[in-house]
Amino acid sequence: MEMPPIDAELALAEVRARREQVVDTNLVPTWFWPSVGGLMLLFVGAMESDVAWLMAVGTIVYTLGLGAVILAVVRKARVQVRFELLGARGIGAILGFALGLTALGVSLGFMLEALSVPFPAFLAAVPVAVGLTLGGPALMSYLRKLMLSRPLAGSR
């Protein structure tokens, strides 16, 4: 018995809607990026203060805060995205994003240190935090489009 074309179209639309729901559920939420950036600035600022109690408090706040942020994201995700859905381009985009921000922060920090600018690590971390805040959601948007562009039937 053959399925009528309208039923096939409706079934395919349902599969696409479910896939979109799975992809959206597993993307890192927008609030994650400024949260991590802010925690990073707090930590770097505390470390650069050279004040023992401030360094201790900054470390504790950073550790607990980052743990809470990550736990909130992990609890929200109901399923894990498989490599086949993300693909090499998705992995490359994630690695490129992380490597780019790391290179920016480290090179800027060394340059500011060489110029004897006060608080070079903190000042170098500011554009990295901005990059996380602005670039993180852009990365998630790219990954969403990439995952939704994959064929519905994958190889097994």
Automatic annotation (TrEMBL):
This is Uncharacterized protein. The chain crosses the membrane at residues 26-46, 52-74, 86-110, 122-143. Keywords: Membrane, Transmembrane, Transmembrane helix.
